[in-house]
Prior knowledge:
By secondary structure, chain A is α+β, with helices and mostly antiparallel strands. Chain A has helices at residues 4-11, 18-24, 32-37, 172-190, and strands at 44-47, 100-103, 107-108, 114-122, 125-133, 153-156, 166-168. Chain A has 4 helices and 7 strands. By secondary structure, chain B is an alpha+beta fold. Chain B has 8 helices and 12 strands. In chain B, helix 1 packs antiparallel against helix 4 (95-112). The longest helix of chain B is centred in the first third of the chain and has 18 residues, at 23-40. The radius of gyration of chain B is 19 Å and the shape is globular. The two termini of chain B are 32 Å apart. The chains are: A alpha+beta, B alpha+beta. Strand 6 of chain A pairs antiparallel with strand 12 of chain B, so a sheet runs across the interface.
Amino acid sequence: MKTTARQNWKRNALSASLLVAAAAAGYSGLQASDALQSSETSDTSVEQPGRGGRGGFGGGNHHLQGLDLNPPEVELAPTPSATESTQSTEKVAGAEYYDGQYYGDAVSADRWGTMQVVAVIENGELVDVLIADYPRNTNESDIITRNALPTLISEAIEAQSADIDFVSRATDSSQAFVQSLESALLDAAIGIDL
Amino acid sequence: MKQTRWLMGMPITVEIVDASATAEAFDTVYAYFNYVDETFSPFKPTSEVSRVNGGELTLDKTCDDMQVVLELAELTKQETNGYFDVWHNGTFNPSGVVKGWAIDEAASLLYLQGFRNFYVDAGGDVQVYGKNARVQAWTVGICNPFNLSQIVKTVRLDDRGIATSGSYMRGAHIYNPHNDADKLDEIVSISVIGPDVLEADRFATAAFAMGRDGIYLIESLPGFEAYMIDGQGQATLTTHFQDYVRVPAVG
């Protein structure tokens, strides 16, 4: 984890291109359901606040439509060692990021673990996001009393197409993913993996 | 009328079907979520949560809403036999109850203004009231955790809450290639329908943290149903979950 001062600095330097970057990296968990709903146009407005804290998003016009809804598999990156540091001295003219690999903050995904990503920059562009750590819940099996005799039914999940009003899905770790990526991209913008 | 804004790091969507809906009604809801973010965000240094963790503020000196959240957290801790806890590794993080509580409060704000047909959706946890624009129960899709563009189950709700807890990172096949086995037994998501979104969210959070046993917790609770999806794409339903599943149109 990084110093408080460092995190404060990052809070004040939000990456406006984060959503676009995350989509380019092939991950769009936070946005996916909105793309599902985006065909509804009447009386629908999508707006962002100008800026927010960590876990919020900066300004910039983006559209939720057209994001990659089928994220490719991502390999686990090696855990960063204390001595490891990636620094690039070259920056492609006009590019937003310095080439290299940048570890994001390890971000708590509520109570079941941490999420840490590695941003891979080539030719000034985010080309991949690796996962250094991901949430794993603890398996404690004897914590509840099975006082009911449940009749639980199992079924294979299958895709349905449906006319729906909205979707229900989890956000916890995808939020952590975005926060970790955000911090990695802030490093990439200055070319130093802090 | 329907609006989506990004707050608390997630899209928050409000749809009001009632003809009396106004832009001010939406502003009220989003202003409320903004207040919640400023007070409870673990990422904002000026929030009460951050100040408690920084040692600048003791819990007994926090605001009335924090006291409500602390009571809810304590209740949830008791109801889950101590498993749910806002203290984790020495850090205070009440997010597990704040989200559902905030959605519930926001929905109450709209109800008190006279609206009867609307929903408030914060990052996939939702409180619904009344009917949708087609004058039917609200139709809720449960996302396929392995492919978020797909719906795996559709349920119909009115005057209830639904919350999903899980990890779509794992759903996206992100796992340790050197230890593939630890993926096989895990739960990728659990969706809980409850009397309101606060209750649904509290127990979805606790149930997911319990792993495979989480579904038994929900099964034991009157008025709650759940749909759990494991790492192998197998779903387990509580006994009466099917009561909410939309019957396909005939012909």
